[in-house]
Every structure is written in structure tokens, then in C-alpha cells.
Amino acid sequence: MRRRRDAKIIATLGPSSSTKEVIGDLFDAGIDVFRLNFSHGTHEDHARIHGFIREIEQQRERPIGILADLQGPKLRVGEFANERETLESGQQFVFDSDPAPGNAHRVNLPHPEIYNALEVGSQLLVNDGKIRLRVLEFDETSATTEVIVGGTISNNKGVNVPDVVLPISPLTEKDRIDLPFALDLGVDWVAISFVQRSEDMTELRALVDQRAAIMAKLEKPAAIKDLVGIVQLSDAVMVARGDLGVEMPQEKVPVIQRQIVRAARREGKPVVIATQMLESMIGAPVPTRAESSDVATAIYDGSDAVMLSAETAAGLYPIEAATAMNRIIIEVERDAYYRKSIDSSLPDPGDTVADAISSSLHHISNVLPLAATFTYTESGFSSFRAARERPEAPVIGCTPYQTTARRLALVWGVHAVLSKEMTTVDEMVENAIRISLREGFGELGQIIAITAGMPFGRTGTTNMLRLTRLKEL
Q1: What residues contact 124, with CB distance under 8 A and at least 6 apart?
Q2: Strands 92-96, 159-160: parallel, antiparallel or unpaired by DSSP?
Q3: What's the average pLDDT block by block, 10 residues per block, for the chain (473 residues)?
């Protein structure tokens, strides 16, 4: 089942999409990767859904990616004696370590790491930023604040601290239980929330240990300050616009989104745009025009994938949401300006043999009408580098490893195919011709480009480029 587009779609699974039938319909509607959100559901739920996906993968005979999204830290206030209070702008309000029920003047904030990181003037945001407070003074157990923007505060509302780097790991005790479970299931990608610094990705990498690819969710202003380091130490990044929009002014989010996309493309790492893409489709069968434009903008910018969250997890119209996103992407990629936009944002090649090969492919495609770019890869490296160039011809990622094929389901323009290991150049060329014709990527007489690493079987050594015509074998 070949997709007639380059950008990929991720769908979050949940109550609205937890049956094998709906998951199959979502795949048929255009979903390439399924997200298991470990903020919700039990291990039994995730195991059952994982099994459904793998059954569908066998039936459709196409690699399907599975993303495990870890919950990360949840900073929340305690409870109130009256369940809720109204804070007025200009009043003082105290957060402290006293577990007693709160009132109109104070509430428990059971996170000593926040007090240890505060500075006078730091902001505290409550209830998705609807309430804003500024720190006047603090010590190791409390913080006195001034209410800048008031509103209703109630039990267990979330707290954001945008101005400081909190001295905590993004991996909570819950995450350290969920992670090995997800890896034992056999997920292909692991996403980590609350990333603040590049060292967070080093910590996750050590725990995952090659069992999955790792993705940084960029939702903290501190992460943007260390953007290059985080991208370099990740296999992919996600623009988590929900929390970004809480922790920084709304008008900055589109600019930051483009900044992240450019940084990821420079490094040849897939970038996912997420949160509220087709939000209205939680309760409506069609998206708004503004949402369609939002998805289109992400595609024009060259993003690898766009993600559906509550639209498919809890919405009334999960299949319609997937269908709408698929149609928007196809329409954008038909636009002549799309190719101009992609080419104009092409990053300079790196100083490696693999980048020289991939860059050459891009130039060749401007001279010859290539039917496809064929990459032989064990780790996925060759396909990642080819996709970085955003070639006009589709990229066929041929690998002997199912784990690699599934990871490539996330990557722009890559159609992953399983095949046995090649031992000679002639065998490699014949195999590329056979697969290109079988999968519908070209007709007899058309030209394909083939890249591979020699000697065979050595990861990350893309050093060969060959052109050949499709012919009868």
C-alpha cells in the first residue's frame, strides 16, 4: 500500500480508536505511525492495542511505526478546602509545602525542586497559563507571589515555570516503569516530555540502548535555548505546541516552530508538528479553514510528520480527521509552490561522504527525471540522509530489518521495504529494479538512483551512488 504523499501522519490512539477495526480504518485512511500515550490507559490497554497494530501490519503487508509517548513530570498544586478559589489581580498568594487544604491566600505546591530553582521575578503559570503570578520572595519551602492575571484556581491544577531550568529529570518514577514495558512490547519510537537540556536525551539514550529510536518533545523555553544540542542527541523532535503556547507568548510559537523545523532539517532528523492541528474535529466532521491552513503551513515548511491527538484518541470523528489531514497534505504537495518552498529551505550538505552522495542525488533529480531513489540501509541512516535533501523522487528505504523499516515510517518521503541482505552490486541493482516495479514506483525504461554503503553490512557508510534503468529481469 503506497502512500501518494511524502509527509507522514501520526495518530494518537485512545477510547475512540481502541478497536482493531478502527485502527485498521485509520491506517487505510492514511495513518503511518500510531502513538500510545502513556499519560492515559493501563499497560494492559497498551499491550492490547500494540497487538492490534501488529496484526494490521501483517494483513496490510506494510511496516507501521509505533510511538510510545512517556508522560513526564506533572507539576500540580494541592487541593482547596472549598475545591476552588478566585484570585484577584494584584493580591498576594502563597505556594508552600504545607499539605493542609488551600484557601484564597495559599495552597500546597508539593514540589521542592520548584522552590530551589526560583528567582525573584520568576513567573508561575497555573491552569494552562490562565492564571499568572510573579514571585516576590521565596525560600526552600514556600514562595510568595503577586497575582498578575487572576482567575479561578481549583484542585490539582497544573503549574508551569517558564523562566527557569528545573533541576529534575524528565523521567519520573512512572516513566521508568513505563519505558521498559514499552521497549519489551517492541515500540519503534520513544518520546520524552519536559526536555530542558541536551543531557536529558543522553539519559534517555542510555536507558533505551538501541532498542528504539528516541524523540525529544520540545515544549519548554529552556529547550529552545539548547535546541541544537537536543536535536543532535535525538533521533527526531516534536514541536509540542500546547505547552509551548502556555510557557511563552502565543505570537512566538509559529516563529519557534519554524526555528525547530530548520534546526531538525539541518541535522537530518525528522520533525513532527503536534497539538491542536484539527482540534475542532473532536466534535465536528470537518476541520475549520484555519486548521487546514495550519496543517498546510507545516507541510510547506518541510515537516516530516503532523500529528493528531485528541482528534483520533477521544473525538467523535477519528477516521474523518485522518482522512482530512491526508487530503490536505496531498493537495499541498501538488502545489508547484510547494516544491519551490522545499528547495528554497534546503540546508547545506554536511562534510561527510553520505551527505555528498545525498546532495548529488538532489542535483541529479533536477537533471534527470528519476522515478525513485533507492537506499539500502541497515540502521536507516542512508534513508534519513536522503530524506534530508527532500528529493522530488520518492525514497525507497530497503532494509533487512523490520525494526528499521518501522522507524522509517515516520520519515518524510520514505517508503520502507523489507528485503534480504545483498552481497554483490549486481544483486543489489536487480533487487532495486524488481522492488521499484513491484511497488509501483516506476515503469520500464525509467531511471532510478541507488545508494548504498560498501563494504556491505557496515552501518553508516553510504558511499556509493549508481543510476540504472528499469528493465525486464
Answers
A1: 95, 132, 133, 134, 135, 143, 145, 159, 160, 161
A2: unpaired
A3: 91 97 98 97 97 97 97 94 96 97 96 93 93 96 96 94 90 97 98 95 96 96 94 97 86 94 94 96 97 96 96 98 98 94 81 78 82 91 90 92 97 95 88 93 94 70 86 89
pTM comes to 0.92
Residues in Cβ contact with 355 at an 8 Å cutoff, skipping those fewer than 6 apart: 349, 385, 388
Q: Which residues are catalytic?
A: 35, 76, 217, 275
Question: Where does 8-72+169-335 sit in CATH, by number?
Answer: 3.20.20.60
| 353-469 homologous superfamily | Pyruvate kinase, C-terminal domain (3.40.1380.20)
CATH ID of 84-160, from 2.40.50.140, 3.30.1330.60, 2.60.200.20, 2.40.33.10: 2.40.33.10
